[in-house]
Amino acid sequence: MVCCWGFVGRTDLLQQRSRLAEFVVCLVSLVIAAVPGSVGSLAAEQPSDIPAWLQAQVGDGDGQITSVVLQRARALYLRKAREGATSNPCYFAMDATRPSTLNDGRLGRRFYVICEADRSFRAISAGHGGGRHLHGIANFSNGKRCAQNFGNAMGSRLTTGGAYVTSEQTTSFKGYYPVSGGRHAPLLRSFVQFDGEGETANARQREIGGHAAVLLRGVCRRKKPDSPYADQEGYVPFGMVENYSNGRSSGCTSWSSTDADAIVAMLRDRPAALYIYPESADIDAVAQAAKAGVAPSRAGLYWNASCLGEIRAPRFWSKERLDPIIARYEKSHPSPPPQPTPICAR
User: Fold this and answer.
1) Cα distances (angstroms) measured from residue 296 to each of 94, 244, 284, 290
2) Which of 120, 129, 198, 237 could form a disulfide with 158 if both were Cys (CB 3.0 to 4.6 A apart)?
3) Where do the DSSP E strands lie in the chain?
4) Beta bridge partners of 212
5) Residue 114: how many CA atoms within 13 Å on its side-chain side?
6) Reduced 3-state DSSP string for 181-213
7) Taking phi first (over 0 means left), then psi (-120 to 50 degrees means alpha), and beta for anything else, what does residue 164 get?
């Protein structure tokens, strides 16, 4: 493929801009094709035998899966099955370039549960990493609707795209919360550990996994010595449940409570492949195209158009760059000593 044009003679400004845009598109395409793991290089590696029933789910609308996301997720699923790393007949994918909330207020469905054995495809909502704003040093925070910043640094609270395999599950007691009739129920939240490779290899060290998007706010302690969760003094935490299904996580993949229960049940003793889009090569390529004023699709790239219009250009923060920044910030802003949870007023 040759991407060279000579600007010979006198042309008007519009023609020059058009030629320059074409050159940028071709140049970006060449760079993408040369980067391992990018859209261009993976396109030739993907299996072409996607079943017709699954191909029917491909598209850019809500509840559909974009072609490149499906291709990469399916390729990972087949590879991990061959390697014996997974035993689950289902696999998962997430498109973190899509919005968490649609324009009409509904939750966007951007996490996919695909089970080819029984020809089932399900799209559900999922949260992305909120990132952080280290005032005076760096801002890699994300809004609720669209993710702009991605990365794999410790303590970054960012989503990292790439290949994962689900691992062990742990369930922890968070506290009691009020339910109807003046009663209280325990909030138990399961966490599914993810193990990664390449840029996602530090997922375990970062405590990256999947869980329900619920937590307790305004926690205090009450006497409840008959509870199996009581501490040595007979106290248990009480609080109000907050559902943040339309919000952000600390870097993990978060689901609604109902969806989380279903996924945890699917994964019990059966690890599965999970692919999260985008990877750093995708992010860098789209950012280059955006900087040049070229639509990603013209350069053979993919990013959700609604979110790209909102964020303008994405950014990947590598751990090599961000780890020292976070370490410097935390050294100059040490966390206050932990305080005991207060006793409930009533």
Assistant:
1) 19, 31, 11, 7
2) 129
3) 90-95, 111-115, 120-124, 128-129, 133-134, 138-139, 149-151, 162-178, 184-196, 209-212, 214-223, 235-243, 248-249, 253-255, 273-277, 315-317
4) 255
5) 32
6) HHCEEEEEEEEEEEEECHHHCCCCCCCCEEEEC
7) beta
Domain regions of the chain by residue span: 13-332
Please identify which residue in the block is written with the tokens 């409570």. 257
C-alpha–C-alpha distance, residues 8 and 277, integer Å: 42
Whether residue 59 contacts residue 69, with contact meaning beta carbons closer than 8 Å, is answered with no
H or E, element range at 275: strand 273-277
| Cβ atoms of 276 and 96 closer than 8 Å | yes
Tell me which residue has tokens 């599914």.
192
* One pLDDT digit (tens) per residue for the chain, 346 residues: 334 333 334 345 444 444 444 544 455 544 444 444 444 444 434 445 899 999 999 999 999 999 999 999 999 999 999 999 999 999 999 999 999 999 999 999 999 999 999 999 999 999 999 999 999 999 999 999 999 999 999 999 999 999 999 999 999 999 999 999 989 999 999 999 999 999 999 999 999 999 999 999 999 999 999 999 999 999 999 999 999 998 899 999 999 999 999 999 999 999 999 999 999 999 999 999 999 999 999 999 999 999 999 999 999 999 999 999 999 999 999 999 999 999 999 7
Q: 224, 176 in Cβ contact below 8 A?
A: yes
Question: CB of 111 within 8 A of CB of 126?
Answer: yes
Kindly state the tokens that stand for 74. 């399916």
* Strand ranges inside 25-131, DSSP E: 90-95, 111-115, 120-124, 128-129
Q: Count of CB atoms within 10 A of residue 15's CB?
A: 11
CA distance 199 to 224: 45
